[in-house]
TrEMBL record:
This is 1-deoxy-D-xylulose 5-phosphate reductoisomerase. 1-deoxy-D-xylulose 5-phosphate binds at residues 122, 148-149, 173, 196, 209, 214-215, 218. Residues 258-374 form the DXP reductoisomerase C-terminal domain. It comes from the Bacteria.
Amino acid sequence: MRRIAILGATGSVGQQALDLVARNPGRWQVEALTANGNAQALADAARACGAKFAAVGDPAAYGALKEALAGSGIEAAAGPEAICEAARRPSDIVLTAIVGAAGLKPTLAAVERGATIAIANKETLVCAGPVVQAAARASGAVLLPVDSEHNAIFQCFDHDQPGSVERIILTCSGGPFRTWTRTEMGQASVADACRHPVWSMGAKISVDSATLMNKGLELIEAHHLFPVGIDRLDVVVHPQSVVHSMVEYVDGSVLAQLGTPDMRIPIAFAMAWPERIATPATRLDLCAIGRLEFEAPDFERFPCLKLAWDAMRAEGSAPCILNAANEVAVAAFIAGKVGFLDIDTIVAETLATVASGPVGCLDEVLEIDLAARAAAGVQVELRTR
Ligand SMILES: NC(=O)C1=CN([C@@H]2O[C@H](COP(=O)(O)OP(=O)(O)OC[C@H]3O[C@@H](n4cnc5c(N)ncnc54)[C@H](OP(=O)(O)O)[C@@H]3O)[C@@H](O)[C@H]2O)C=CC1
Ligand SMILES: CC(=O)[C@@H](O)[C@H](O)COP(=O)(O)O
Ligand SMILES: [Mn+2]
């Protein structure tokens, strides 16, 4: 049995991972589960899978967790350090499914002890890709992408001949506003933005999909996961989300991974790797789907994609500033403080006001992340309705 820790166990990815654990008795022993404030759901999940340790990031949720775990024998803990402790406990695999840069320190804790990391938490790679990869090289940790596009690329990528890859093509659904004008997007509600046409996901990534920032973050994620130059990364809009991404080789061959849009496919791939295991995902029926469409992304209606592309090219702290500003802007939008179109403006203004430069270590990343959040907070206040 392989021991697994699931960080972000109460979220969309975490719950689907636990579904796979429940469907495969004897395959994984759950060492630790974490959440932020959702103590009851965490305790229920920990009891159901027989976890040994459960931690909430929010110290205020400790009492509720302790009470919900009473008599279970499951150890309870709270606070950001407890989430890192969950990552450090002796598991073979750590699934990082925390949303946002809050996942950075726990992911690094798992990387530093040389664990196999099934990484869903893309923001960690966006804000600290070089730091995480350097730590992985030093410890021997293996990073297995869970994000559907990167998992597809991982499956198609010739890891023995990276030089034979000419282009990586990330597919993008286009989000709920693919056909909307900017004027229409100006009136978009949080519910509109979270109504993803294909995937059911947490609120933050759903809004990112609506602005196309998700694809921008994924470009940067791909840059850190796959050893090809920045200029070999491309994006194509594919509304059906059946082709999860593609790898083009120097001979003109293009390899793609296809499947129904069900995150349990990439989650199972990463959690069982190098084995493949059965999943309950609906099988792909191309005749029933009938058409697969592709179109170029529109940078004018979706400026976040261009902001991310530019930040990736700038390197250094620019992606960290982009990510922090985006987290602040999306949280303000979800809280009803700013409008949908304020998100790209807040990110652009933050990138324009916070000086970027090289970043060499975790402390520098955390410092720039804080500075960018403060600057983005000012931008939010300027626009608060
Ligand atoms: N959902 C999807 O299909 C996909 C998601 N991803 C990526 O996976 C990650 C998770 O996404 P998703 O599952 O949708 O997110 P959700 O919002 O559904 O879940 C987030 C999880 O993180 C926990 N969490 C939030 N903040 C903190 C914090 N400060 N400290 C510790 N834990 C915290 C939440 O706990 P609590 O419930 O207590 O708040 C919850 O368990 C993101 O990086 C996303 O981009 C990538 C591809 C697909
Ligand atoms: C399931 C997954 O990996 C998400 O990141 C998804 O790709 C979002 O879709 P778009 O960002 O392409 O709309
Ligand atoms: Mn994705």
